[in-house]
Design a protein that fits this description.
1 helix, mainly beta, signal, 9-stranded antiparallel beta sheet, elongated, single chain, Porin
């Protein structure tokens, strides 16, 4: 288990004094492991074949692309209120609405017998949408410059896994 996954799981365990976000026994706590993608840009120098001079030439520039990473998100929903915890790697440089532990308030939560859907605000232009299939546990999050696909497991604080 990587350090990032370990930290995300520990964040769900209530402290002795309790928490403002502690879930009641009828709440839903999910930890979702999967693959996240984030748009990145980097400055590169490489060699390109010049077909007119028949030699390699140096080329500098900024390239953009999607970077994949194994990561996890945490979702908590209780009585129509919910939040999602994103790994630092999926939070854009310009973000608003999250707290210092990367929890974001879920909006427009729709729960049915087969699916959970919601959205959250990362910044003024980016409002990712998440969908969780309650039968398979599959989660998808789609936003501007970021995606996440994975599988969720229920996590009940105070309960042993086996």
């Amino acid at each position: 288990m990587t350090a990032a996954k370990f930290v995300l799981i520990l964040a769900l365990i209530p402290t002795a004094g309790g928490s403002a976000h502690a879930q009641s026994s009828d709440g839903l706590n999910l930890v979702c492991f999967g693959v996240g993608e984030k748009m990145t840009s980097e400055y590169k120098t490489d060699l390109v074949w010049d077909k007119y001079d028949h030699k390699y030439r140096s080329r500098d520039g900024i390239t953009t692309g999607m970077k994949q990473m194994d990561t996890a998100v945490t979702v908590q929903i209780d009585k129509g209120d919910g939040r999602i915890r994103l790994p630092k790697a999926l939070v854009p440089p310009i973000a608003s609405g999250g707290d210092d532990q990367h929890w974001w308030q879920l909006n427009n939560i729709q729960m049915s017998a087969n699916q959970i859907s919601a959205s959250y605000k990362l910044n003024g232009l980016n409002h990712p949408k998440l969908k969780i299939d309650r039968t398979t546990g599959e989660i998808t999050i789609k936003g501007f410059g970021q995606d996440f696909h994975g599988r969720c497991d229920r996590l009940d604080p105070g309960q042993r896994r086996f």
